[in-house]
Design a protein that fits this description.
The complex is a heterodimer of chains A (791) and B (162).
Chain A: H1 16-19, E1 36-42, E2 48-54, H2 56-59, E3 64-68, H3 70-73, E4 96-97, E5 103-109, H4 112-120, E6 123-128, H5 135-139, E7 153-157, H6 159-163, H7 172-179, E8 184-196, E9 205-211, E10 216-221, H8 226-237, E11 244-247, H9 263-275, E12 279-282, H10 285-291, E13 295-307, E14 312-324, H11 334-339, E15 350-358, H12 372-390, H13 394-401, E16 410-411, E17 417-418, H14 423-434, H15 436-448, E18 452-461, H16 470-473, E19 489-495, E20 501-505, H17 514-526, E21 533-537, H18 554-581, E22 588-591, E23 594-597, E24 600-606, H19 607-614, E25 629-634, E26 643-652, E27 659-669, H20 676-695, E28 727-730, H21 748-765, H22 779-790
Parallel strand pairs in A: 1-12, 10-11, 14-15, 20-21, 27-28
Antiparallel strand pairs in A: 1-5, 2-4, 2-6, 3-5, 7-15, 8-13, 9-10, 9-12, 13-14, 16-17, 18-26, 19-20, 19-25, 22-23, 23-24, 26-27
Chain B: E1 2-3, E2 6-7, H1 18-25, E3 44-47, E4 50-53, E5 66-68, H2 81-88, H3 98-111, H4 117-123, H5 135-148
Classes of the chains: A alpha+beta (791), B alpha+beta (162).
The complex binds FE2/S2 (inorganic) cluster (2 copies).
Residues 33-36, 38-43, 53, 55 of chain B line the site of one FE2/S2 (inorganic) cluster.
Chain lengths: 791, 162
C-alpha cells in the first residue's frame, strides 16, 4: 500500500481506478445520438495554387450533410493566434496551399466511412509551385513563401528589440573582446536540432454540440487549454464566453501539441452551429503527423569562449528556426523561451540571434520544452566540446562556472532573474549516485579493451510557472483567446454541506495527475482525508478562468491559487469551529477530518458539522458570511527556474553504429515536491522524449515538401526495449516566488536529456577523433561517422 | 462471438474493424485507437487468450471467438494483479496506452511468470507509451509477477519509498 502522508507523500493516483479498468472517458468515447462525423480533404502537395475545386459530386453522395470550403468560412477570418506575427492559417485553404496536410475542404456526413468516401469524391486541381523547405535557403529569400510578407524571415530575436525593451545592455562587445584575449580558447560547432512530431498516443479529437434552443455551444476537446479554446471560439465565432463551454475530459497525452487552438476545433464548432447537430472529428495518425503542430527545427552555430583553465568568458548562439507555413498559437515566440535560458546555469556574457523563417511545412510551436531544449542543447554541446579542447573533466568545467547559491536571485545574461538554485549541490548528488569516479574507470577500462564506451554530462536550467504579470504588458497576453493575461491561474475550494471538499482548477492536464496532487494540497491544508476530496479540471463552466496545462506551469501557478484558497477556507472554518467549540479561532487545529481545540483533542467537531453551520447564517459567528467556498486567481511575481544535471553512459557498436544506453542518472531540482512518485514519473517520460530526439526521431520533409515520416513506422519513437531503467535523485531548492516553494517538473527531463545522450556518444567516439554527430543518432549515421573518422 | 464472457451477435459491414465494433457497436470504449495501422498497440485485446491488435482484424474475423477487453479483466470487482501493479507503481500517466499495455502485460505473464526486465521490455515492445518512459510500466509488471507468484513485490524506487 502506498503512503497516505499528504505533502511529499507518494500517494497513489486518484485518476487510476477508472483508467486501469478502461472506464476513463476521452473525447472520442463520447457519441451523443445523431452525431455527424467530419473528414478533411488535405493537400497532397507542399505549395500550389488551387485552380479548380469542385465539391458537387461529394455533396450529392448519400449520407453527406455538408461540404465546406474557404468560401463558406472566409467571413470568420484566419485562425486566431496569440502571437500574430507571420501569416495566420486560413481555416480552410484560401486559393493556395502551403504545406502537405493543409485542410482544403471539410465534409460532414452521417458516419465516418461516408465522410471519408466523400472526401475522395472532391475534385481539385493544383498548379504546383516550387516548395521552400531548406532553412538556409528559406532565410536567403530566394523563393518567398508568402509574397505579401516580402520575406521569409518573420522575426529575428536579438539584443535589439528584446534586451533593449527590458533595459539591458548588449553583451556582444564583451564576448568579442574576450575572443581577442591571448589565452582565449574558442570552440564553435554547427548543429542541427531537428524537427520533431509530438506523437501523443491519443489522436486529437473534438466534439461540438450546439443547442439552438438555448443558444449554447458545448465543445468537448482533447486539449490542454480548455479556457483558451472557449475564448478562441467565442472570439472567432462572435459569441459571448458565457455561451461557450469547453470540456477537456481525459486527455491522452499532449506535450504541447494540444496547447494550440486548431482550425478543426473552430470549424467543427461552427459546423455544429450551422447544422444544429452534434459534430465530431477525430484525427487519423497521418493527420496527427501532417496537421498537428511540430516542434524544434533549428540549424545553428554555438560559440563558446573560455580560458585555458576552464573559465567561461562568453557565449554566442546564432540559429535559424523553422516556423512552418503559418503562424498559430505562439509559433514565433517559441525561440524566445530558449533565449531566456540561453546562458544555462552559468555566469557569462551571452548573445544570441535567431531568425524565425517560413517554410512550406506544418507549423511549429510548443513541443515539450519548447525552445528550451534547443537552446540548452546548443550551449551544453559547446561546453562539452570546450572541455574536450582544454582537456578538462566536463562535470568539473560546469561546476567551475555555475552561479553560486549566494548569488540568487541572479540576473542572467538574457535578462531574467533566476529565482533560486544550488547547481553544484545537484552535481555533487550526481557524483554520489552515479559513483562518477568508478564510472570513469569503467569507461577507461572498456576503452582499453577497444570498446566504444562514453560518458555524457548534461546540465540544464529551465524556466516555467510563468509570470511575472508584466510579460502580458509587453505583448505576451492571452487576449486572442479571450483571457487578459497568460500569467495567472485559478483555484476554487469548497467544503460541501456533508464535509467533503470539491476543488475546481483552471488547468487542463493530460496525464500529470492533478486530481491527486491538488487533493494532497487541500487535504494538507484542511485535514480533510484525500478520499473525501474530489478535484475537477478542464471545464470552463465550473472554473472561473484558466490558462491550461503547459510549460510546467500548473503546480506553480494554479497550485498556488489552490493553496491560497485553501488557507482562506481554513481561516473561515476556524472561526466557525471556534464558535461551535466555544474557543478562540487561533486555538483551532485541523487534523484527521475534524477540527479540535489545541491541546484537547476530545473537544472537536467533524467537518460535516462545521459545514452544516457554514450553510446556516444563524449559526455563524458575527461578521462571517455563510457558505464555505473560496476562489483565488493567483499571479506569480516571477517565473520559476528548475535545474539539474544528467549523466548517460553509452556503448556504440562499431560494426552497426547502434547506440546502447548502459546507464542513465538524473538529478533534478523542482523545489519542494508534493508527490515524489508523480515527479519521478514526469522525469522518466521527459527523459524518454529527449532520448527519442537524440537517437530516433526526425520529422523529414523532402525537398519538394513531402512529409516522409507520417506514420509510426517512419517516425520512430522509443519502445520499452530501447530504454534502460533510469536512476533518479533530487535536490530540493524551494523557490521564493510561490507559497509552496514549488517549481514544476513537466519538461525538465526532456530539456536535460538529448544533449546528455549526444555528449555520451561523442565521448564514446572521441578516441576516433569524432567531434560531433547530428541527431538523431541512428545506427547508419553513427556508423558513417565512424567510417569517416577512420578514413 | 463472446465478449468478456457475454455472448454477442450483430450484423456488421465487412469493413468494420474489430476495434470499431467493440467501441462503437458495443460501446466498450476502454479499448483505444492510437494509429489504426497496427503499430501503437493501444487497441490490444485478447482473442481466444492471445493478444491481438484489434485494429488489424475485421469484426467478422472474430466470429465465434472469445474476446476479452480491458473491461473484462477485473473479476467480481477484484482488480487483476497487473491492473493493481499499474496503480501501485504509477505505470500510467494519461492512461491512453494503458488498456492495451495491460492486456499485453497480462498475456506476457500468462506465458512467463518470472520474466526478467529484458523479457518484460521485449514483451511489451509492440505497445507504445509516450508518457511514462516505460520505467514504471516495467516496475508495474514486476509487481504483478511477484503478486501472481504469491510473493512480496519489490519496493518502489522513488525517493521516500512507500
Ligand atoms: S490502434 Fe491498433 S495498433 Fe494502433
Ligand atoms: S500513459 Fe500516456 S501514453 Fe502511456
Amino acid at each position: 500500500m502506498a503512503t497516505t502522508s499528504v505533502m511529499g507523500g507518494a500517494v497513489r493516483r486518484r485518476e487510476d481506478p477508472a483508467l486501469i479498468r478502461g472506464m476513463g472517458k476521452y473525447t472520442d468515447d463520447f457519441a451523443p445520438p445523431g452525431t455527424l462525423r467530419v473528414a478533411f480533404l488535405r493537400s497532397p502537395v507542399a505549395r500550389a495554387k488551387i485552380i479548380r475545386l469542385d465539391t458537387s459530386r461529394a455533396k450529392a453522395m448519400p449520407g453527406v450533410v455538408a461540404v465546406y470550403t474557404h468560401d463558406d468560412v472566409e467571413h470568420l477570418g484566419p485562425l486566431v493566434a496569440q502571437v500574430p506575427v507571420g501569416k495566420l492559417r486560413p481555416l480552410l485553404a484560401a486559393g493556395e496551399v502551403n504545406h502537405v496536410g493543409e485542410a482544403i475542404a471539410m465534409v460532414v456526413a452521417e458516419d465516418r466511412y461516408l465522410a471519408q468516401d466523400a472526401v475522395e469524391a472532391i475534385e481539385v486541381d493544383f498548379d504546383v509551385l516550387p516548395a521552400v523547405v531548406d532553412l538556409r535557403k528559406a532565410a536567403s529569400d530566394e523563393i518567398i513563401v508568402h509574397e505579401e510578407l516580402g520575406t521569409n524571415v518573420l522575426h529575428t530575436w536579438t539584443y535589439h528589440g528584446y534586451w533593449e525593451a527590458l533595459g539591458l545592455e548588449d553583451q556582444t562587445p564583451l564576448i568579442d573582446e574576450a575572443m581577442q584575449r591571448p589565452d582565449a580558447v574558442v570552440v564553435s560547432i554547427d548543429m542541427v536540432n531537428q524537427r520533431l512530431i509530438p506523437v501523443a498516443i491519443e489522436p486529437r479529437s473534438v466534439l461540438a454540440e450546439y443547442e439552438p434552443g438555448y443558444g449554447r455551444l458545448t465543445v468537448t476537446s482533447s486539449t490542454q487549454v480548455p479556457h483558451a479554446l472557449a475564448g478562441a471560439i467565442a472570439t472567432q465565432l462572435g459569441m459571448h464566453q458565457r455561451d461557450v463551454r469547453v470540456i477537456a475530459p481525459e486527455v491522452g497525452g499532449g506535450f504541447g501539441s494540444k496547447l494550440n487552438v486548431y482550425n478543426d476545433e473552430i470549424l467543427v464548432s461552427w459546423a455544429s452551429m450551422q447544422l444544429g447537430r452534434p459534430v465530431k472529428w477525430t484525427e487519423t495518425r497521418r493527420e496527427a503527423a501532417n496537421s498537428t503542430i511540430h516542434g524544434r527545427g533549428w540549424v545553428g552555430t554555438a560559440t563558446l569562449v573560455g580560458t585555458r583553465d576552464g573559465q567561461f568568458l562568453g557565449y554566442k548562439l546564432e540559429a535559424i528556426a523553422d516556423m512552418g507555413a503559418y503562424s498559430q498559437n505562439f509559433t514565433v515566440a517559441i525561440p524566445l523561451l530558449g533565449l531566456w535560458i540561453a546562458s544555462g546555469q552559468y555566469k557569462m556574457p551571452t548573445a544570441f540571434k535567431v531568425d524565425c523563417v517560413v517554410t512550406n511545412t506544418m507549423t511549429t510551436d510548443a513541443y515539450r520544452g519548447a525552445g528550451r531544449p534547443e537552446a540548452i542543447y546548443y550551449l551544453e554541446r559547446a561546453i562539452d566540446a570546450y572541455a574536450r579542447e582544454i582537456g578538462m573533466d566536463p562535470l568539473e568545467v560546469r561546476e567551475k562556472n555555475f552561479w553560486q547559491p549566494d548569488e540568487f536571485p541572479a540576473t542572467m545574461g538574457c535578462g531574467f532573474a533566476l529565482d533560486s538554485g544550488d547547481y553544484a549541490a545537484a552535481t555533487r548528488r550526481l557524483r554520489e549516485i552515479s559513483d562518477y569516479e568508478e564510472l570513469l574507470r569503467r569507461r577507461d577500462q572498456a576503452r582499453a579493451e577497444g570498446r566504444l564506451v562514453g560518458i555524457g554530462i548534461g546540465s540544464y536550467v529551465e524556466v516555467c510557472g510563468f509570470g511575472p504579470a508584466i510579460l502580458a504588458d509587453i505583448g505576451f497576453s492571452w487576449s486572442a483567446y479571450g483571457q487578459p493575461s497568460a500569467f495567472n491561474g485559478s483555484g476554487l475550494v469548497r467544503v460541501n454541506p456533508d464535509g467533503t471538499a470539491t476543488v475546481i482548477i483552471g488547468t487542463g492536464p493530460s496525464g500529470q495527475g492533478h486530481k491527486t496532487t491538488w487533493a494532497q494540497i487541500v487535504s494538507n491544508g484542511l485535514g480533510i482525508p484525500i478520499e473525501n476530496i474530489r478535484v475537477h479540471h478542464g471545464d470552463t463552466e465550473t472554473s472561473p478562468m484558466g490558462i491550461g496545462t503547459f510549460g510546467s506551469r500548473s503546480i506553480a501557478v494554479d497550485g498556488s491559487a489552490t493553496y491560497e484558497a485553501t488557507q482562506k477556507v481554513r481561516e473561515k472554518a476556524a472561526k466557525i469551529a471556534a464558535k461551535l467549540l466555544e474557543a478562540a479561532p487561533e486555538d483551532i487545529v485541523f487534523a484527521d477530518g475534524r477540527a479540535h481545540v489545541a491541546g484537547s483533542p476530545d473537544r472537536g467537531v467533524d467537518w460535516s458539522e462545521i459545514a452544516a453551520a457554514a450553510y446556516q447564517a444563524h449559526k455563524l459567528p458575527e461578521g462571517v458570511d455563510s457558505g464555505l467556498e473560496e476562489t483565488i486567481v493567483w499571479t506569480p511575481s516571477n517565473a520559476t527556474w528548475p535545474f539539474g544535471t544528467h549523466l548517460a553512459m553509452v556503448e556504440v557498436d562499431p560494426e552497426t553504429g547502434n547506440v546502447e544506453i548502459l546507464e542513465y542518472y538524473a538529478v533534478d531540482d523542482c523545489g519542494n515536491q508534493i508527490n515524489p512518485m508523480i515527479v519521478n514519473g514526469q522525469v522518466h517520460g521527459g527523459i524518454a522524449q529527449g532520448v527519442g530526439q537524440a537517437l530516433f526521431e526526425d520529422a523529414i520533409y523532402d525537398e519538394d515538401g513531402n512529409l516522409l515520416t507520417s506514420s509510426l513506422v517512419d517516425y520512430i519513437i522509443p519502445t520499452a526495449a530501447d530504454l534502460p531503467s533510469f536512476k533518479l535523485a533530487h535536490t530540493v531548492t524551494p523557490t521564493p516566488v510561490n507559497p509552496m516553494g514549488v517549481k514544476g517538473i513537466g519538461e525538465a527531463g526532456t530539456i536535460g536529456s538529448a544533449h546528455t545522450i549526444v555528449n555520451a556518444v561523442v565521448d564514446a567516439l572521441a578516441p576516433l577523433g569524432v567531434k560531433h554527430v547530428d541527431m538523431p543518432l541512428r545506427p547508419r549515421r553513427v556508423w558513417a561517422a565512424i567510417q569517416e573518422a577512420r578514413a | 462471438m463472446t465478449v468478456n464472457g457475454q455472448p454477442v451477435t450483430a450484423d456488421v459491414e465487412p469493413r468494420t474493424l474489430l476495434v470499431h465494433f467493440l467501441r462503437e457497436h458495443l460501446r466498450l470504449t476502454g479499448t483505444h485507437v492510437g494509429c489504426e495501422t497496427g503499430y501503437c498497440g493501444a487497441c490490444t485485446v485478447h482473442v481466444d487468450g492471445e493478444p491481438v491488435k484489434s485494429c488489424t482484424m475485421f469484426a467478422v474475423q472474430a466470429d465465434g471467438a472469445s474476446v476479452t477487453t480491458i473491461e473484462g479483466l477485473a473479476r467480481d470487482g477484484q482488480l487483476h494483479p497487473v491492473q493493481e501493479g499499474f496503480w501501485e507503481r504509477h505505470g500510467l500517466q494519461c492512461g491512453y496506452c494503458t488498456p492495451g499495455m495491460i492486456m499485453s502485460s497480462v498475456a506476457l505473464l500468462d506465458k512467463n511468470d518470472r520474466p526478467t526486465e529484458e523479457e518484460i521490455r521485449h514483451g511489451i515492445e509492440g505497445n507504445l507509451c509516450r508518457c511514462t518512459g516505460y520505467h514504471n510500466i516495467v516496475r508495474a509488471v514486476e509487481y504483478a509477477a511477484a503478486r501472481m507468484r504469491g510473493e512480496e513485490p519489490p519496493a518502489p524506487d522513488w525517493e521516500g519509498g512507500e
